């Protein structure tokens, strides 16, 4: 499947309200509104279980891909992060948001390792929670903000697709809210995200190739 076709299928679904139980019928991603809890309360960090069976998002994402990304890639981020911060008790007390939001406080010798692996852990922990089946269109305040910011929900999808398509190599297309409360869409390389800027995550597309 071509990259553009995949993104259009993924975004042909919708974003929804926070903390709705994942209903597994036809794979469609949902985005939580602001106010998400911390992705973790501090180390040692653990691999969160998938909130659905690996084949639940087919035909959009197959079971093999889900298992590979969760059981191998995500697990590696968790293990590498725990290994990096093991000699630093103060860092072990911090959440991934706190680590990524203040990288200057992380010792230089492990800063890149923490950035990459805390980023990978945070991004994928959020991703598993936002893919649901079926998804829902945004409601209430978030729906109005999307209309006000992007013109319409359809134009928001177009902007997300354009952002993801513009990423060379691996990275993420992120939909987030900045410190001033403004919604934005922005590409990030590798496992970077708006968490580096202190902005909460709303919805991300993992561009893995």
From TrEMBL:
Transmembrane segments: none annotated. GO terms for molecular function: metal ion binding; superoxide dismutase activity. Residues 45-132 form the Manganese/iron superoxide dismutase N-terminal domain. Keywords: Metal-binding, Oxidoreductase. Its EC number is 1.15.1.1. Residues 119-141 are annotated as: Disordered. InterPro entries: Mn/Fe_SOD, Mn/Fe_SOD_C, Mn/Fe_SOD_N, Mn/Fe_SOD_N_sf, SOD_C_sf. It is an enzyme of class 1 (oxidoreductase). Belongs to the iron/manganese superoxide dismutase family. This is Superoxide dismutase.
């Amino acid at each position: 499947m071509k990259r553009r076709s995949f993104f259009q299928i993924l975004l042909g679904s919708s974003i929804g309200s926070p903390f709705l139980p994942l209903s597994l019928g036809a794979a469609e991603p949902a985005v939580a509104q602001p106010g998400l809890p911390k992705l973790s309360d501090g180390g040692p960090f653990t691999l969160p279980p998938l909130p659905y069976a690996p084949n639940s998002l087919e035909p959009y994402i197959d079971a093999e891909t889900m298992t590979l990304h969760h059981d191998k890639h995500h697990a590696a981020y968790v293990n590498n992060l725990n290994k990096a911060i093991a000699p630093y008790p103060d860092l072990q007390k911090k959440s991934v948001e706190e680590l990524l939001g203040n990288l200057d406080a992380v010792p230089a010798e492990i800063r890149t390792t923490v950035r990459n692996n805390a980023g990978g852990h945070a991004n994928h922990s959020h991703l598993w929670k936002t893919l649901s089946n079926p998804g829902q269109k945004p409601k209430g305040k978030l729906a109005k903000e999307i209309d006000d910011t992007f013109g319409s929900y359809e134009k928001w999808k177009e902007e997300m697709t354009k952002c993801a398509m513009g990423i060379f190599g691996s990275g993420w297309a992120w939909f987030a809210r900045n410190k001033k409360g403004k919604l934005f869409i922005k590409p990030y390389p590798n496992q970077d995200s708006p968490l580096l800027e202190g902005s909460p995550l709303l919805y991300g597309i993992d561009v893995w190739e």
